[in-house]
Write a structure and sequence with these properties.
Elements (H helix, E strand, L loop, with lengths): L1 H22 L13 E2 L30 E2 L3 E7 L5 E6 L5 E5 L10 H12 L9 E6 L9 E6 L8 E4 L2 E5 L3 E6 L12 E5 L9 E5 L6 E5 L18 E5 L5 E6 L4 E7 L4 E6 L11 E7 L10 E2 L3 E2 L19 E5 L3 E6 L12 E6 L12 E6 L13 E5 L12 E6 L5 E5 L4 E7 L1 H5 L1
Length: 446
């Protein structure tokens, strides 16, 4: 019996040592985030890792009336609070704002890897059960605070993206695109959702987004990969790492591929083309690979898992695919390494003054595997008049302060949209707040 106890204790010590080694195996960045951002980022040699760098900003929440820090000339206040992990938003034609209160489906709990991952998610504020709910927010008196907060749809399955097309509200659950009839002004949907198409679920990258395509007749649905670099084989990635095009009659096709985790999507009204932000791969070191913002056209292939940033080979992926290298499209703009770019909204909808008149706002949820951490803010990418990022542009901080002086997370930004008056709304899934950013009174008075 004593021997059995000693063996168990030894195994616990070994497992503990392995976990400690994992958590204390950092690869420190040698470049700043801005050096790995822009149209021509510094792409250095990869530093392959058997164990990933783990650097988590532990969650403490907003305390004592604290709030994010807006850029000069801007102000921020809470539009709605007391939400349950709000991640994505959609503005209806009457100005009502729908908020997906959501998280991943239940994750595996068996095995050392699953337990360590759940521990890390807990520290990052990402382990709460999914409310599986869409909530309606209404600011009827226009004072910048939602006085109505009511359940709009419930019983969903890790819902995320929402889009209205021809009187139907489409919702992207983690495993299916569904729809319900919608009439303007409704505050609750009781209809049972109709399945439009099934979507591959499971694994990593559970969030599915949906937007109306530039043609105004179809929908585009993003489906992230199930793994980091297809380490479980490409069959497990079937119809993943893709953006799909879906017709209302339930036909669909692959619109673009090789996108590890496309999340925020929006139509650039200047070019009338789809743009997306994409989370790139892990375990190549703290300086690789950059998340990115890019225009996406039908038939584009961005290289995942074999290539990153338009043709740099990831030699960890087997079997190799050399024939693809010359066709892997280079993205338009690097956001920096591991920033977790999720939210996306263009400046023609958000009215924050001349400095932000042309470009795109990006919500960066924040890194878990870079030292020092990156992201945890909302940034602006300046565009030129032609509808593409301005020459030499770098991301500009718009809303910061999600990390306190001790590097702890008070919040983490995700979705970014414009409200009916042109203010910017930011979903903070850890702070459980929707923040509203406007020009400051002094700026507005000029």
């Amino acid at each position: 019996m004593r021997r059995h106890i000693l063996i168990v204790l030894a195994l616990i010590l070994v497992a503990g040592a392995a976990i400690f080694a994992w958590l204390s195996w950092p690869d420190t960045a040698r470049l700043s985030v801005n050096q790995v951002a822009g149209a021509r980022p510094d792409i250095t040699a990869p530093r392959d890792q058997t164990l990933p760098t783990v650097k988590i900003a532990e969650v403490v929440g907003w305390q004592g009336g604290a709030r994010p820090t807006p850029a000069a000339g801007l102000a921020v206040a809470a539009f709605a609070s007391g939400l349950d992990h709000p991640r994505w938003m959609y503005r209806l034609p009457n100005g009502d704002v729908l908020v997906a209160e959501t998280n991943s489906p239940p994750r595996p709990t068996r095995g050392v890897t699953s337990r360590v991952m759940n521990f890390l998610l807990g520290r990052a504020g990402a382990a709460v059960p999914s409310a599986n709910r869409i909530t309606l927010l209404r600011d009827a008196d226009g004072d910048g605070v939602a006085e109505v907060k009511t359940p709009f749809m419930t019983g969903l399955n890790s819902p995320f993206g929402m889009a209205l097309l021809d009187g139907q509200l489409y919702v992207a659950n983690t495993d299916a695109l569904v729809r319900v009839p919608y009439r303007g002004g409704e505050t609750r949907i009781a209809a049972r959702p109709e399945v439009v198409i099934r979507l591959a679920g499971g694994g990593n990258h559970w969030a599915r987004n949906v937007v109306v395509a530039p043609d105004g007749k179809t929908l585009l649905v993003s489906v992230g990969s199930s793994s980091n670099i297809a380490e479980n084989g490409m069959e497990a990635e079937r119809y993943r790492a893709n953006i799909l095009q879906v017709w209302p009659d339930k036909n669909w096709r692959i619109y673009a591929s090789g996108l590890r985790n496309p999340n925020g999507m929006a139509v650039n009204r200047v070019t009338n083309e789809l743009w997306t932000v994409v989370n790139e791969r892990d375990m190549l070191g703290s300086d690789l690979a950059p998340d990115y913002l890019t225009q996406v056209e039908f038939g584009d292939q961005f290289g995942w898992p074999w290539y990153y940033w338009g043709g740099y080979p990831d030699r960890r992926v087997e079997p190799a695919n050399p024939a693809l290298q010359q066709y892997a499209k280079r993205p338009d703009f690097a956001m920096g390494p591991h920033v977790a770019a999720l939210g996306l909204e263009f400046a023609d909808a958000v009215k924050l003054g001349d400095r932000y008149a042309r470009g795109a706002f990006v919500g960066e949820h924040g890194s878990w595997n870079r030292k020092p951490v990156s992201g945890y803010k909302v940034v602006f990418v300046p565009f030129a008049a032609n509808g593409y990022p301005a020459r030499g542009a770098k991301p500009v901080d718009v809303l910061t302060g999600f990390l306190n002086a001790d590097g702890e997370a008070r919040g983490r930004p995700v979705g970014v949209i414009a409200d009916a008056g042109g203010a910017m709304l930011v979903a903070d899934d850890v702070g459980n707040v929707i923040w509203r950013v406007t020009p400051s009174q002094r700026t507005a008075a000029r």
